[in-house]
Every structure is written in structure tokens, then in C-alpha cells.
Write a structure and sequence with these properties.
Strand order of the largest sheet of chain A: 10-7-6-18-29
CATH superfamily of the largest domain in chain A: FAD/NAD(P)-binding domain
Number of strands of chain B: 8
Number of helices of chain B: 16
Largest interface: A-B, 10 and 6 residues
Radius of gyration of chain A: 31 Å
Distance between the termini of chain B: 29 Å
Number of helices of chain A: 18
CATH architecture of the largest domain in chain A: 3-Layer(bba) Sandwich
CATH topology of the largest domain in chain A: FAD/NAD(P)-binding domain
Number of strands of chain A: 34
Oligomer: heterodimer
CATH class of the largest domain in chain B: Alpha Beta
CATH architecture of the largest domain in chain B: 3-Layer(aba) Sandwich
Helix content of chain B: 40-55%
Number of domains of chain B: 2
Order of helices and strands of chain B: EHHEHEHHEHHEHHEHHEHHEHHH
Chain lengths: 652, 303
């Protein structure tokens, strides 16, 4: 077949043209074998630039196109669309990256950069010569979504997807949805009560006809791919038949066994059979076998005896439910960085040094002290309270390098609310920088400092220790250069946010990427902030990075709209650049099956050869490298193509 | 069992009591501390300059001496331990400094006519630097110490003082958690004392400030002594001759400036170990202490 290839060299303003002699490149490649047309232009991705490509395809009857510009991540799709606009198969359009891989990195040696650009383009010309016209793979889409995590982000995502007309399964590992937001007292910067704005949403989610709430459940095995996930959900044994239970609460009332309440952050107790908090959704108890007298020793059994509907069932086992969904929203949330890691602040041994979530409970009207701030050691109302920001955050040497983003604001809120309840109290807040990037946040901080007399001290605290019923705070005021020592009644730590402990395990199961700190990675930090790189997975809330409630809710709605747009089409189209088995060559050794990270390679028992499932293969190339007989190839990236490309690159 | 031992200058001059007690205890635990046949000062302070090799040479040379005797070297003084351990880490991790230091060592060997060449091969950090307390834990074992303990130390309230040099910098020393260290607590528990946890156990005693800024050193030491005192300690233990001097000797000043000041004896941890193991008080030598621990020990029927 005669090749008629078009080469389009982009200037990218001066990004490329300032280093690479684009005119010379276009001229030299005009005479390269197979090239029918070669030109350059200032901005190839602009409308006139794309039209230039389209017109040239038609006018010169081009069989393939090499656009020499930026990275294919940026504009491959753009130019493939342009190709389609001129009736050229999109997979006959390739990008030669002469910006990131040439002009940007060789600014000091312009003549050689020009040589390199020519070589890069030649390799792509060789590739296009052997490219085949491909069609995207169409896969059907199950229009049902799974949302993992029932905090505010998960609830919002579930509601939005359900309201757009699709079924949602909302899985939450705890006995109730609500997440950390349900624990909060009031929220910055408006000081509206967290429960008041959250609980209606929790009820909405539970009552929505298209949302199936699965609390006390965990995601088990995950198989399939975008549009077609098959998931096993583990219903943890609650030892209560929650379908029968009416939520009357008699069992919890009469249960004689107590343990620390997780919801109250250890500041109060709960029974062994319990609902996490009064507004829980669903408002039905679960039984914690570890603390149940009957489960541990066979004695007691009061809850079973007293239950009016016989819902208590000590023999219940974990159950597994299979569900099929087309998209998964991961909203697994955050934990506080464990206080035990902060040795200089007592590592959790000093009673009156509390975490920020514990202080939320002390401020909360529904908390263990009914909203009166009392310190844990003796129940006294503290008169001097010190709030510490950046505890574990912004400390790459010892803890987390990142800023946890919300601590400045919630500690400001804590100090303000404390002052509202203890008028003669003194609140000190130690900070590195007060970061108030949010609507109304700076004003809120000003109000705390000016109207509520919260004393902001710029500096870190080096040590906390207990002495005569006080917590001694050793700090520094870096604005005056003075050492500061405070005998405080109580200290509140703004501990770093970190991804929920189980989220990492889940991310592994789902095969989605996380960053070095375990936060879920988005496909693009700016342009695709709510999608995972793996298709079909969407991110919402603090699982993706530290964020406040407005951001978490916004991201959840964004993720929901992404799910809705996936569900808007009948089929999902996947890239056809995937592996292909030459069945005549394949010896059936199954090496490819063992290396495939996506379980796309399978063994055909009848034909005794390997088979690649088109809908699953991501085109990573692992099987191709592993195949001992060379019988697996990548479409449009065959060994022969690679060889020709390398040859073109090495030629003088 | 023989283990190479680097005493350092202070244990041969001012802290003879520390040296003596530590050797006695080792012997009682079936370990012979084998003093390096030649050694020099460790350099006393690990250099803060990052581009200098000269400043670590003294430490490296001692380690090279030690490498002829075995694969570890035990030391007691916190300063020596700090310098040797960090110099050793440089020799392990920094190829450029390692090469330069070895060139110096070769030149040094060549210049010493008549003395047997001490450097048989390049020194690359092959020796493990152990603190005596680490030797007790890892070589002897605290369980064995518990078995060998003869005296009943229960009721004796002991505050373990770590100071700075054992613990910091954390990544280089790798000794214990610098904020909440535990090794001396574990040791005291093994010999049956009542451990007094006090918040100033890792604060500085004032160190070398005693030479020019005595008031600073007194203030620092007073913070430490007071803290232990408020927690009810009968005695403070330490492993550093300089800490011992500051915490003990400076109580002379403290008692003059503070009314009702309660003096607390400050002794080396191996002196306390010696009492636990039933070693004769003479060998432990409490004669150099400003605050004499003997009345306290007598009261508890320990001497």
C-alpha cells in the first residue's frame, strides 16, 4: 500500500519554536519516504490549526497523520477527533512529542534539539506506516452505581446519582451512615449545627426509593471492569435481624456490658448491643461480639429474652451478597493521625490532651457532657485551653509532609465555641500560618481573634507534660522571639488527617492508585479531579485528600455527575490499543494469565490457547513482555513496528 | 565473653568511678570489657559542618582500632557514644568521606614507625557501636540481669535521666524514641526498682555551658532535678559524666538559691546495677558524688 502521510509541526507559540527550528523540521521531513505533505503552524491545536490538518487530509488524500506537538496525554484525543472530521480513522493519527521530550528539556542546545525533533517525528512516521485502522471497543453499561462509604461525601454522591434516575447501593462499614460529620458539633464558618444539616440528608438517603442502604457491610471481592463490575459485599454478622428489628432500644437499655464508645471517641461508654448514636440511620442496633457476655461466656442473653420481636440472633454469620454495578464511587473518608505517634505531646498518655474529634464531642449538645466543656481527667470546666495546629501535618521530617487543610479552621471554631460557653476562659491557639482559604473563612478567623479574644500565638509547641493537674505547654512566640510557657487545663490537638485505615486495603482490591500518603489519586490534578485513572472509579471526599465539608460535598456531586454521564450512553467505548493472541503461535503456557494485573488474559480450555478479553484488557503490555513465544502482540504497537521505530531513531 | 571497650578520656580521668563500676558489673555478668590497646579522644563533639572530614577522623580512627578486636565496640559516655555512632554512620553511608577518611588513616599509619600498622583494610563501618545499656539488653539480656539481681531494690524510687546525646538526632542514633524512650525504664524494671517517670528526662542538663555560662547550666540542671524531685524520686541515674557533674555538683548552687531545696543523689546506672548484683560498695566508689547516695542506700539496707 502506498503511504501518504502528513506531518504537522506545531510551534506551540515559542514553547517549541523557540528551541526547535520548526521550519527546517517541516522542510526536511517533506522528503522522508512515505510523507506526502509536511507543514508547520503556530498553534496546531487551535481551530485554524485543526482545520489545516483536516483540509490537508482531504486535499492530499492522506492515509496517516503525525502531529508533532505536545504530549499525547494533552492533545491526542483532539487530533484524533480532527482526523475523524476528515474521514480518517482516528488510530491513523499519532502524536510525536517534541515539546516535553525535546524543546522543554534541551533549551541549551538548539541545533541538537532540532535534530532530535526530526528523529522523534521519523519514529512516529514509521509507526503510522504500520498502524491499522481500529474501532473502539463497545461494552454495555449496567446502570447501577456502588458508593463505598456513608459519610457526607458518600451520602451526597448517592443522592445525586439516585436523583438522576439511577439505582445506587450505598455501603457503609459502620452500623450507621453519617461518618465523621455526624460527630461534629457546629460547622465553620456559619456555626450551623452539624447534626441539623446532616441528619435530614441521612434520612433522605435511607428513604430514597433508588438507594439501597447497606450498613455494617464491607466490599469484598471485586471483578469486572467499567460498566460491568461484579462485587461481593460482606454483610457483617450484626447478631440482630435488622429487617425484623423495630429499633425500640430495649436491648441496649438492658444490656449489662459496657465498653468505650467509638462515636464518642472514648469519652463515654456504649453497651455491647448498641446503635452508635441516637440519630443513627438505620436506627437499629448491632451486637459487638467481643464485648457481649453471652457471646464470650454463654451467660446473660438478656437482649434476646427482652426483644419484643425476637430479632436478636446469636448464631448469625457473615453473609455475602453479589451485586452488579457499572460505576463505583469511593468515598472512604479519613481518620485522625494516631496521637500515639506524637511522643512530645504525651503520645496519648496525658488525659487532658485531647484530639480534635474528642473536643467536637465535648462541644456537642448531644455529647457526653451535653455541650458543657469539661476536661476528661476530673470533669472540671477548663479555664485555660491551648489549641495546637499542624500536629503531624507539615512535618516531612517526622510525620506527614502535607497540610491537612481544615485544622486552622476547625481549631478556630473550637476556640470560638469554647469562648462562647466559658466566658472567663482563655483560649490560646498556636499556629504556623493561619490558612483561611475558603468563602467566609478569613472573616471567621478575624472574628475569633478580635471579637472572641482567642489569643493566636505564632509558633510551635515543643513539649507537653503533666504537672500538678495542669498540662504544661512549652512553646515559642516567633513574632516576639519569646519562649512561652502555659499551665493549661486542657490542650486540643489538631492532628493530621490521613486516609481511613481500611481504605488502602480497599484501594488495592479495586486496583486504583493512591499517592505516597495513601490518598486516592485522581486521573488529573486539575482537569479530572474526581476520576481515578482506572475507568469506572470515581473519588469523593477526604479519601482523595484533606478537605472540608463544602469541598467534600462539591466533589461528591461532581463524581455523581460523572457517573450520570457514564450512564447516559448505552455503551461505553474503550481504547482498542490492547493485546492480541496469535492462536497459531500460542503454546498455551499460561504465563500471560499469571502476569495479567487485570485478569484479562484467560486460558481457552477448548482451543488450549490464551485468550485476551477485550473488554477488560488495559493494554499495559505485561503479557506481551512475558510471552516466551512472542505470540502476544499489542495492536498498533507490534514488535515489527517498534523495531522500525528504533531503527529510524538510530539512523544517521 | 570478651567485648571491645572504648572508655574515652573522661572515664580515665574524672569518671573513674563510672569506669570501675561498669567493668565490675560486666564481670559479674560474665563479660570482659577488653579495652582497645590504643585509643584517643573521640573528638567530643560531632561536627556540624557537613563538608569536613577532619572533624570525624578521631572517632573513625578509634573505630578502626576497634575493628581489629571484633565486630562491636562498647562505650559508656553519652558524648563518646554520640560521636562514634554518627562517625560510623558517615563511614557506612557516605562513599566520598569514607574514601577520604581512609586516606588519612593510611597516612597516619605510615607515619607511625615502629608501631604495628593498625589498619589492615579500609574502614567501612564494619564495627557496631553499642552503648553499654544496649549491651545489657541485647548481649546479656534483661532477663539474665533479673535472675542475677541479689539486692531487693523494691521501694527505691529511681528516675532515669537520658539527656540529649543518647537519643538525638533520632535517625542517626537509632537508640530509642527520643520523645518517649523506654530502655532505661525496662532496665530499672529488670533490677526491681520503682521507676519514676518524669517529664524532663530527655531535657538538656546544660552540657558544656558549665564552662562559660554557669548560670545557664544551673538553670537547665535545676529544671531536671526539680522535675524528678516533684515526682518523688529518691535517686537519679545517668550514663553521662557531664550530665552527672551538672546534675550532682550544681546542686551546691541550687541549695543556696532555693529555700527548702531537696537534694537528690545522682549516680551512674552501672553503680545502681552493681548494688543490684550485690557488688561490694567499695568497688562501686561513691566517693566522688557531691550528694552522697550512701545514707539513702543505707536507709534502704542496700549498702
Amino acid at each position: 500500500m502506498e503511504h501518504r502521510i502528513g506531518v504537522f509541526v506545531c510551534h506551540c507559540g515559542t514553547n517549541i519554536a523557540g528551541v526547535v527550528d520548526v521550519k527546517r523540521v517541516a522542510e526536511e521531513l517533506a522528503s522522508y519516504p512515505g510523507v506526502a505533505f509536511s507543514t508547520d503552524y503556530t498553534y496546531m491545536c487551535s481551530d485554524p490549526g485543526q482545520n489545516l490538518v483536516k483540509d490537508a487530509i482531504k486535499e492530499h488524500k492522506l492515509t496517516g497523520v503525525v502531529v508533532s506537538a505536545c504530549s499525547p496525554t494533552l492533545h491526542e484525543a483532539t487530533f484524533r477527533r480532527a482526523g475523524v472530521g476528515a474521514d480518517l480513522n482516528p488510530y491513523m493519527v499519532e502524536i510525536a512529542n517534541i515539546r516535553e521530550q525535546c524543546s522543554w528539556v534541551h533549551q541549551e542546545d538548539k541545533p541538537r534539539a532540532t535534530e532530535k525533533a526530526i528523529k522523534i517525528i521519523k519514529t512516529m512516521i514509521e509507526k503510522v506506516k504500520q498502524d491499522e485502522a481500529l474501532e473502539p471497543i463497545a461494552v454495555p453499561v449496567t446502570k447501577r452505581a456502588l458508593v463505598v462509604g456513608g459519610g457526607v461525601a458518600g451520602i451526597q454522591a448517592a443522592l445525586d446519582i439516585a436523583n438522576s434516575g439511577h439505582e445506587v447501593i450505598l455501603v457503609e462499614k459502620e452500623a450507621s451512615i453519617g461518618g465523621h460529620m455526624a460527630q461534629l458539633s457546629e460547622t465553620f464558618p456559619t456555626l450551623d449545627c452539624s447534626q441539623c444539616i446532616l441528619t435530614p440528608k441521612m434520612v433522605d438517603a435511607a428513604q430514597h426509593p433508588r438507594i439501597k442502604l447497606m450498613t455494617y457491610c464491607e466490599v469484598g471481592d471485586v471483578a469486572g471492569y467499567v460498566g460491568n463490575f461484579k462485587i461481593k459485599i460482606k454483610k457483617k454478622a450484626a447478631y440482630v435481624n435488622r429487617d425484623v428489628c423495630t429499633g425500640c432500644g430495649l436491648c441496649s437499655e438492658k444490656c449489662p456490658s459496657k465498653t468505650d464508645s467509638e462515636f464518642e471517641e472514648g469519652l463515654a461508654t456504649r453497651k455491647a448491643i448498641y446503635t452508635p448514636f441516637p440519630q443513627a440511620v438505620p436506627n437499629k442496633p448491632v451486637l459487638d461480639a467481643e464485648h457481649c457476655l453471652y457471646m464470650q461466656s454463654g451467660k446473660c442473653g438478656i437482649c434476646a429474652k427482652i426483644c419484643p420481636v425476637d430479632a436478636v440472633d446469636y448464631t448469625q454469620k457473615d453473609e455475602f451478597v453479589d451485586v452488579e454495578v457499572g460505576a463505583i464511587v469511593v468515598a472512604t473518608g479519613y481518620d485522625l493521625y494516631p496521637i500515639i505517634n506524637i511522643g512530645e505531646y504525651g503520645g496519648g498518655k496525658i488525659k487532658d490532651v485531647v484530639t480534635s474529634l474528642q473536643f467536637e464531642r465535648l462541644l456537642s449538645a448531644s455529647g457526653p457532657t451535653s455541650g458543657v466543656v469539661r476536661r476528661p481527667s476530673d470533669g472540671e470546666i477548663p479555664k485555660e485551653v491551648v489549641f495546637l495546629t499542624c500536629v503531624g501535618s507539615r512535618d516531612p521530617e517526622h510525620h506527614k509532609a502535607y497540610c491537612s487543610k481544615i485544622c486552622c479552621m476547625y481549631l478556630t471554631k473550637h476556640a470560638m465555641l469554647y469562648k462562647h460557653t466559658v466566658h472567663d476562659g482563655q483560649a490560646y491557639l498556636f499556629y504556623m500560618d493561619v490558612r483561611t482559604g475558603g468563602k467566609g473563612y478569613e472573616e471567621f478567623y478575624q472574628r475569633a481573634a478580635e471579637e472572641d479574644d482567642v489569643l493566636y500565638v505564632r509558633g510551635k509547641v515543643s513539649k507537653l507534660y503533666e504537672e500538678d493537674g495542669k498540662v504544661i505547654v512549652w512553646g515559642v512566640d516567633t513574632l516576639t522571639g519569646q519562649k512561652v510557657e502555659i499551665a493549661a487545663d486542657m490542650v486540643v490537638l489538631g492532628l493530621a488527617m490521613e486516609p481511613n485505615a481500611q481504605a488502602l486495603e480497599l484501594a488495592k482490591k479495586l486496583k486504583i492508585q493512591v499517592n505516597e500518603w495513601g490518598f486516592l489519586s485522581e486521573a488529573h490534578p486539575k482537569l479530572r479531579p474526581v476520576e481515578s485513572l482506572a475507568p469506572g472509579f470515581y473519588l469523593a471526599g477526604a479519601a482523595q485528600g484533606p478537605k472540608d465539608i463544602p469541598d467534600a460535598v462539591a466533589q461528591a456531586s461532581a463524581a455523581a455527575s460523572k457517573v450520570a454521564s457514564l450512564f447516559a450512553e448505552k455503551e461505553y467505548h474503550r481504547e482498542p490499543i490492547i493485546a492480541l493472541v496469535d492462536e497459531d503461535e500460542c503454546a498455551g503456557c499460561r504465563v500471560c494469565v499469571s502476569v495479567c494485573p487485570y485478569d484479562a488474559a484467560e486460558f481457552d480450555e477448548e482451543k488450549k490457547v490464551a485468550h485476551i478479553q477485550e473488554a477488560i484488557c488495559e493494554g499495559c503490555g505485561a503479557c506481551i513482555a512475558a510471552c516466551p513465544s512472542g505470540s502476544v502482540t499489542q495492536k498498533n504497537l507490534t514488535d515489527d513496528q517498534l523495531f522500525k521505530m528504533v531503527t529510524a531513531a538510530l539512523e544517521d | 565473653m570478651k567485648i571491645p571497650y572504648y572508655p574515652g578520656c573522661t572515664l580515665h580521668e574524672r569518671a573513674l568511678d563510672f569506669d570501675k563500676a561498669s567493668r565490675e558489673c560486666a564481670r559479674a555478668l560474665d563479660i570482659e570489657l577488653e579495652e582497645l590497646e590504643i585509643w584517643t579522644c573521640c573528638g567530643a563533639v560531632f561536627p556540624l559542618t557537613t563538608d569536613s572530614v577532619m572533624d570525624i577522623l578521631a572517632g573513625v580512627r578509634n573505630l578502626a582500632y576497634a575493628s581489629r578486636l571484633g565486630d562491636k565496640v562498647v562505650t559508656l559516655c553519652s558524648f563518646c557514644y554520640n560521636v562514634l555512632k554518627r562517625a560510623n554512620k558517615v563511614m557506612r553511608d557516605d562513599p566520598e568521606k569514607r574514601e577520604k577518611a581512609n586516606l588519612f588513616l593510611k597516612a597516619d599509619t605510615d607515619a607511625r614507625e615502629g608501631i604495628e600498622s593498625y589498619l589492615k583494610e579500609d574502614y567501612t563501618g564494619q564495627v557496631d557501636v553499642l552503648h553499654y545499656i544496649e549491651m545489657l539488653r541485647d548481649v546479656v539480656g534483661f532477663d539474665k540481669i533479673r535472675e542475677r539481681t541479689k539486692a531487693d531494690l523494691s521501694g527505691l524510687k529511681v528516675a532515669p535521666y537520658y539527656g540529649c546525646m543518647l537519643l538525638r538526632p533520632k535517625k542517626e542514633m537509632e537508640f530509642d524514641d527520643p520523645e518517649q524512650p523506654q530502655i532505661f525504664e525496662d532496665f530499672l524494671e529488670a533490677i526491681g526498682c520503682d521507676v519514676v517517670d518524669f517529664p524532663m528526662k530527655t531535657e538538656c542538663c546544660g552540657g558544656f555551658q558549665i564552662v562559660r555560662e554557669e548560670d545557664t547550666a544551673v538553670a537547665c540542671s535545676q529544671t531536671v532535678v526539680n522535675s524528678a524531685s516533684r515526682r518523688g524520686a529518691d535517686v537519679i541515674i545517668t550514663t553521662c559524666p557531664l550530665c552527672r557533674y551538672n546534675l550532682d555538683e550544681l546542686q551546691k548552687k541550687m541549695e543556696k538559691s532555693v529555700t527548702g531545696f531537696r537534694k537528690i543523689p545522682v549516680i551512674y546506672f552501672t553503680q545502681l546495677l552493681g548494688i543490684a548484683l550485690g557488688i561490694d560498695e567499695e568497688c562501686l566508689d561513691f566517693s566522688d558524688n557531691y550528694v552522697d547516695p550512701r545514707p539513702l542506700l543505707a536507709e534502704k539496707s542496700l549498702v
